[in-house]
Design goal:
The structure is a homodimer. In chain A, α4 runs parallel beside α7 and α5 crosses α6. Chain A is flat. The N terminus of chain A is likely disordered. Chain A is mostly helical. Chains A and B meet through α7, α8, α10 and α11 of A and α7, α8, α10 and α11 of B. The structure holds a DNA duplex.
Chain lengths: 228, 228
DNA sequence: ACCTGAACACCGTTCAAGT
DNA sequence: ACCTGAACACCGTTCAAGT
């Protein structure tokens, strides 16, 4: 979005009036750079070179700001991923879009899991509900399937994001998973646990996420009325 | 000095030496009473009538304490729910046990969604993996199915807990959902959205959670080798 | 109306000093 | 060895005062 032409220019047009939009934009930038713990009201004021109280003129609370920032990331993603004819394809594309967005902005994962009816979560609900309906589900079954899918997507994304947060690069991740698998296998005599531990370092979160979406889709289809 | 002449001895053997166990116990009690924001190191020291630094002698960090508290709640639940012969039944019992525990201790929901490989999450992984295997899934398919189920359970529980946190009693919840459904239906012309909004106030989170588990189970069975 | 920045009431964590 | 509690370096939020 912002194209930095050089290191000389630090603050972008600070003469502009403050607005909710500009504050949310700054928050997203800070969250991407410094993580969730880096988002402080003081950091936002420094970024926008303004006073503390000015922020509260446009934003109710820090939680409000976090939710708005999450919405700012999720909204465009849902818009981009929409528009598939095949409903199952549409669901996969949406789910993957959300996953990738959270992979790129881990703090979004934690935020979406925190509030059930924040704007970003409602948007996800709506965008997944439409293709689910076209899959032949409606009424209470649609509500159940929609809740299950949304909860799975948010849960998986949150877990992945939490993992990404504590092992940022692939090498660290690999090392961490191997250590964990080793410990796991050592602590437990169960052969099943050992087998699962062995698979831990090699697996790809994104593929596994998609496999979960497919399991879910298979379940919905099989319950909706069997196969044709 | 503090003179506790109060009603017949409220604190249990405060002469006992401090220990990790006693600190975790106190944390659980505080979290249940005052919620996540009520858990401060100062509150713990007050509860145990000790100094700040003493806590850090037995616990590495506040996050460590939170994770241990979650483990203290989840562990017994998993032990109680185990031991069903029928694997599908076992999975339902475990999932429901976790859901109910999080319903009773909402802070656990937020905590489990935060760290992917904390002890409590590993325990959940193991306890769900065994019946899944007995359902006829193994190898990579087992890892995929296990991840999907765990992520769904944790995601749904986190969302439910977040909802429970902001609308504690049934009346508040009802009112909140009705307001939300109204707003939702007003903002959106889509008939599908309106239909879903109408179902919102009447639904039961626990039943919907179980419906999701069943969708998932149907998906696993249908992918594992079709129906007999 | 919008903004400033000092002040308030908190945090988690550390550490010299006690027993 | 275990514990104390003052001190440190932070927080989010408010509010009288400025423009």
């Amino acid at each position: 979005m912002s194209f930095m032409t050089g290191p000389a220019q630090r603050s972008p047009r600070r003469s502009d009036a403050l607005s909710r939009e500009r504050i949310v934009e700054a928050a997203i930038q800070i969250l991407d750079t410094a993580g969730e713990s880096g988002l402080t009201v003081r950091a936002v004021t420094a970024h926008l070179s303004t006073g503390r109280g000015a922020i509260y003129h446009h934003v109710a609370t820090k939680d409000d700001l976090l939710a708005a920032a999450a919405g700012g990331v999720v909204g465009p993603v849902l818009a981009d991923a929409a528009g598939h004819d095949d409903p199952a394809r549409a669901i996969r594309a949406l789910a993957l879009g959300i996953f990738d967005a959270i992979d790129a902005h881990p703090w979004v994962g934690a935020q979406l899991a925190r509030e059930p009816f924040q704007p970003a979560v409602l948007q996800i609900w709506k965008s997944l509900g439409v293709p689910l309906h076209r899959l032949g589900v409606s009424g209470t079954a649609l509500a159940d399937a929609g809740a299950a899918l949304v909860n799975y997507v948010l849960g998986a994304a949150a877990q992945h994001a939490a993992g990404a947060r504590q092992a940022p690069d692939d090498a660290a991740r690999q090392q961490y998973l191997e250590a964990l698998a080793g410990q796991w296998a050592r602590d437990d005599a169960d052969s099943l646990v050992r087998e699962s531990a062995g698979l831990l370092p090699g697996h790809d979160d994104r593929e596994q996420f998609l496999a979960g979406v497919d399991i879910f889709l298979a379940g919905v289809v099989s319950r909706a009325g069997g196969r044709p």
